[in-house]
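DM from R.C. (forwarded with permission)

"hey, sorry to bug you on a friday — could you get me a structure for this? deadline for the figure draft is monday and I only need the backbone to look sensible"
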Amino acid sequence: MDKMYLYRNSMLKFYFQGGGWCNNVTTCLSRKNTRLGSSKQMVENLAFSGILSNKPQFNPDFYNWNRVKVGYCDGSSFTGDVQEVNPITKLHFRGARVFLAVMEELLAKGMKNAENAILSGCSAGGLTSILHCDSFKALLPMGAKVKCFSDAGYFIDVKDISGAPHIEEYFRDVVSLHGSAKNLPPVCTSRLKPDLCFFPQNVAQHVRTPLFLVNAAYDSWQIKNILAPDVADPYGVWLNCKLDILKCSSRQLQIMHGYRLLFLRALNALGPSSSRGYFINSCYAHCQTEVQETWYRADSPKLANKTIAKALGDWFYDKNPFQKIDCPYPCDKTCHNRVFDPNVHTFNIDI
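My reply, with the result:
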């Protein structure tokens, strides 16, 4: 939390950190003694850059806002709520209670007087901002200008390269383990199985609060973990491609183009909305708003000649709507495509 600015004005910006999820006792235990499993392991000083920067030259529309960066340690995008605690593992599945505790503390510190507020996040934090968007708005004063945006949080429900529903099964395990069903939007769970309501494509059309989606259609996390997870690629055929899109074969690029079309179909299924905004570029990237080079810089990614910062700022302040989708890779020359270190194993729902 940026304590310097907490009482300065009536503008408040939340940013939920990412960090994937854990879907069973083993994967949750592997996070238990890290920053993704305990606030005791979180660093005390965090960088505030990109949309969290307090310098007008780096963040012209939001630099003077109160800023709260929320650590991520529950592994369920703050939806879990299980009363029982296993006496052996000592694992707590109570992310929804953590979310409420954070909100209660901030309400007591002045959030109840906010006139402008944004709920946002990256990756699993971006999913948090979608799932909790309306409940967040309900906490704020009547008449407050409240909007949400998700950075790289629009995870889609598709089969992997082997034809298996890998991500659907994974999310089913997450929702079951964490007891998330009761904390997912009822408008979705009343008609679909709870695990399907962990997918934004089944939830976002029902979000009443204005929502902005920032996502790469070739999202590097989704390519690595949804399209071509290790379990679907036992011989590592996709390894080099997942590390660097320039090393993808023509066949792999063709499959990735197909994934983009599925992503756009899942986005278009939300239907039209004048209050919804989106910036969907064709970069090989994941999370673009907290990093200065992709948020607001002379060489930042652009659509319709606007950076993400400019598009989001215009949308929030109702200057101009923004709903733009990029042309297919590699037409966009403004992209900052991620290149991953081959010595750092970052696949399979662990980032």
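R.C.: lifesaver. The first helix runs from residue 25 to 32.
me: no worries. The radius of gyration is 19 Å.
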